[in-house]
Each structure stands twice: as structure tokens, then as C-alpha cells.
Design goal:
This protein is of the alpha+beta class and 244 residues long. The chain is built from 12 helices and 11 strands. The chain has a 4-stranded antiparallel sheet, with helices on both faces. Strands 1-3-2 form a 3-stranded antiparallel sheet. Strands 4-5 form a two-stranded antiparallel sheet. Helix 3 crosses helix 4.
Amino acid sequence: MSEKLYCEDLIHFSDVMSDFNRVMIIIELMNGRTLCASWLAKQLNLSPSATRFHLKKLEDAQLIHHRTCGRHRYYEINNQDTADFIESTFRIIPPNDYLFLTGTNNKQKFQQARTCYKHLAGSWSVKLTQSLLQNNLITIQEDLFLITTAGKNFLNHYQLLPDDFDNKIVGKRCIDFTEHRDHIGGQLGSQLLKAMLHQAWFKQDINRRELSITPLGRTKLHAIINVNCRQQHQHEVGFPNRDY
């Protein structure tokens, strides 16, 4: 019975994602934002009725959900697990917003830095993750990234974590579909991207997934990625002489 139900769910998902416009709606929502139906209709050049039809199909498949604000419905990806699943399919079939980007510069920006739901993806994110791992600032536990005490102090120094950061917050191991290596997703990844955007390390176009790294962001990330934990922690972070 369970196998039959699984097959039915798989067939339903395949049917929902077989339509070009529904795939494009998912791609638009993968920047982690909440978008209204009228905006999606205009962006995809669809009629309001066609847009509502596609949105209902996606909601019925539990890929998205909506919130009502006044007279408008605002749609977003259902949850982090859904976003991770969608992103994993991009490793097999690259998303249309990547394939349809015009110009080499835009493609390079997309490969280097973009939103993956609410966290950072692309080569910058992978390099950051690898550096934190190599310096024991984060550790791997099955499919999660755990932040170490040294890692908390280090990231606090760069104002990437709040002083009252909850040590129970972890990152998810999310495989980057353009780099084919792990980057930090989940709550930890969301917190890091939020802090980077707040400090203007990246600039984000409200309607696109790709991010533009700023000169400040390039300087800061180079400092983090190139740090040698054993030789430079006291110089870069300032502990144990500084209290955090």
C-alpha cells in the first residue's frame, strides 16, 4: 500500500512539474521571497486566470503555499526541505533562470553568488564552507553543519552571527548544483546571508537570484577564506585577549 501511495505521489509531482510555466514560477520563488500572483502573471506574461491555475496546481502538490494580505495572495516555497529538494533537482537539470540568462557577465554572477532559497549559493559559498571546515570552525555531523566554539567567535568577529546566537542552530549540507560541492544551508546559512546583505557584502536585485559581490564583501570573504586557523586566529579574531 505504501509503495502504491509513493508511486502515486511521484506521478503527481512529475505531472505538476511537467509544465514550463509552473517550473518558471518555482524558479522565481527560489530566491526566498514572497511574491503576489499579479507580479508572477506580469513577469511570466500569463493571464491572471492561467496564473491562478498554475499556482493551485503547485499548492496542491505542497510545493508552495500562500499568505493573504488584504486583497492579495502572496506565494512562497513551502519550506526549507522543499527548497532543498528542488535545488537537488537542479543538479540534474540546470534551472531555466540560469540557462536563459543573457550575457557572460550574468552567467558568471549566477555561478559565483546567488540565493538558494534564503541562503548563499555559488562558488563564494562553497569556498567559504570549505575554509570553515578546514579550520575546524564548523564540523560535519551526518547531513548537518555544526558550528564550533572557535567558529562562533570567529564569525562573531566578522559580525556574521549575533552575540546571542543560539548554539542549537545548525546548517544543512546543501550540494551546490553549479559547484557540485557542499555549501551551508538551513538556519545557519540563512543567518550568514542575512548578515552579509545587511553589511552590504552583496547587493541583491529584488527580482533575481544572482547576487553582486561588493568590494567590501570581496575583501571580507577573501580574509575569511584565506585565513589559516593555527597561525592567524589571534591576529584575525583577537582572542584570547578579547572577550566576546
